[in-house]
Design goal:
The protein folds into two domains: 189 residues, Up-down Bundle (Rhomboid-like fold); 62 residues, no CATH class. It has eleven helices and six strands.
Length: 300
Amino acid sequence: MERLLSRLERRFGRFAIPNLISLIVGGMAIVWLLTLLKPEFQTRLTLDLYAVRRGEVCRLVTFLFIPPQLSPFWLLISLYFTWWVGSSLDQQWGAFKFNAYYLIGALGTMVAAVIAGAAGNVWLDASLFLAFATIFPDVQILLFFILPVRVKWLGIVSALGIGYEAVTGGWGVRASIVAALMNYVLFFGAHWVALARGRTAVSRQRSRMDSFRSGAGVVAEASAGGSGRRSTPPIAKPVVSGNRFDSEGRDRGDNMPVFGTRVCAICGAEEADGTDIRVCSCEKCGGQQRTLCLEHARNH
């Protein structure tokens, strides 16, 4: 997916809309104000393909600006939170990648409208938060302005809530969820697969190391005459350095670390969690080897 996005960005990057989430959130605020003046106004914005066929093509875009149905206070909190999440993703990915993520989710919602009828942007906004929780799992927010909670736990709760809606809802709701979250699957599917494989590899490596440390001593093998048996000396336990790299991620020059023990010197991402860790020795690193995650290996 990254290669495809890079190619597309080279060709179409100039068409990316900067600060897209600011436009979306600003549009939601305007729609909310207009709805106060004319309550039926919002019904003209939903993604209704029957209305689109009658010539109301603008509904293919206007559904993105439908605000959540909340009290004024919680609506302001929700709009600010949506803006904060989207802006963080925009800064992390760049305008083009964020535009692509949002566009794929919008197209998925349109597909859901074909299957289930009129649709809104609820699950599309949920996909933004799931992406944020995946990229920034350790960011803390104050739940109810009091309780500090890491975003990854809120992401897990949100995923469970979405799963509950998919199980208890009808086929229309399920189609809406699957279609609207297609962007998340495309962007993060490989991440979760690599994470699962990494944990499996680390588990196997630790099992091997435990077997070495246990000192499986006697190896039976046939003697030269074929009748007797002899035992070899106990196998020496390998001495493995805990980490080849110091606290700054620079190479100490001693033994190679056990697979899965390396961490990024900049963000602290661990190879044991499935992060792709590289070794860099460029001029910026002072000519010495440092372990960096793939993102910081490319940009540091």
